[in-house]
Amino acid sequence: MRHLVAAAVLLTLAQGAAAAQPVADREPSITVQGSGRVQVPPDHANLTVEVVTKGKSLDAATATHRDRTQRAVNAIHERKDDGVALVRSTFRLGEVRSPPPPPGSGPQRRDDAEYQAVTTFDLKLAKLDKVDGAITALAASGFFEVRNLTFGIDDKNPGVNAARKAAVIDARERAAVYAEAADVQLGNIVSIEDTEQRGPQLLAAGAPMARSVQVTPPENLTLSASVTMTWRITGKP
């Protein structure tokens, strides 16, 4: 019996030591988030245009729309020398919803129904000095309705890495301040996590059916990056 009691006590002690082991082995560390921002000029524009075709029936709308869309695609390709590239296109088809009739006028007649086919084109304009001419030419073709124009920065722009480096420098400076205030010193880096990096989009123009536009690209856009870093910390010698 005494042997059984002793074994039970040893088992309990072993379990307690195992439970405490992770806490005992856990190294002191500090985790800090840093952020970086840089100002860089935009390197491209994003343009959204639409081809809209209406008809008295779904078949009539789609039949005409098919031909207009192909001619619109050709017009986009013709602007290749202006730096215009087709990124994606989407298509939708539906009935045009008319406003409800006034009270007492009776139900709306079905022969008044109208349908429309819409193809939306997302374009990238790589030559900022030709944005005005490209948009004017597309609008003047008679196929497009200009919906939205934004300016942006590519992921491979050098400013992206500059913002990341600034975020790491900021995190290191923050960690050093905390370590000094806590009377400890920074050791090796345990982990680095890229927590946020966004390319800006700036609304510049929205001119439905414009025949001639004058667009001035913004001088600079803001690129931001965020990083979370963890250091080991030790007592000062």
Descriptive tags:
disordered N terminus; elongated; alpha+beta; five-stranded antiparallel sheet; 237 residues; single chain; 4 helices
Q: Report the principal-axis shape.
A: elongated
- Based on secondary structure, the structural category is alpha+beta
| Mean of pLDDT | 82
**Oligomeric state of shown chains:** single chain
Q: Please bin the fraction of helical residues.
A: 25-40%
Instruction: Give a quick account of the main beta sheet: strands, pairing sense, barrel closure.
Output: 5 strands, antiparallel
**β content, as a range?**
35-45%
Topology:
Blueprint: H1 2-25, E1 29-40, E2 44-55, H2 58-77, E3 84-95, E4 115-125, H3 131-140, E5 145-152, H4 158-181, E6 184-198, E7 202-205, E8 221-235
Antiparallel strand pairs: 1-8, 2-4, 2-5, 3-4, 5-7, 6-8
What can you tell me about this protein's structure?
The protein is an alpha+beta fold. Helix content is 33%, strand content 38%. The chain is built from four helices and eight strands; from the N terminus they run H-E-E-H-E-E-H-E-H-E-E-E. The strands form two sheets. A five-stranded antiparallel β-sheet has the order 3-4-2-5-7. A three-stranded antiparallel β-sheet has the order 1-8-6. The longest helix has 24 residues, at 2-25. The radius of gyration is 32 Å and the shape is elongated. The protein starts with a helix and ends with a strand. The relative contact order is 0.24.
Task: Produce a short descriptive summary.
This protein is α+β, with helices and mostly antiparallel strands. The chain contains 4 helices and 8 strands, in the order H-E-E-H-E-E-H-E-H-E-E-E. The chain has helices at 2-25, 58-77, 131-140, 158-181, and strands spanning 29-40, 44-55, 84-95, 115-125, 145-152, 184-198, 202-205, 221-235.
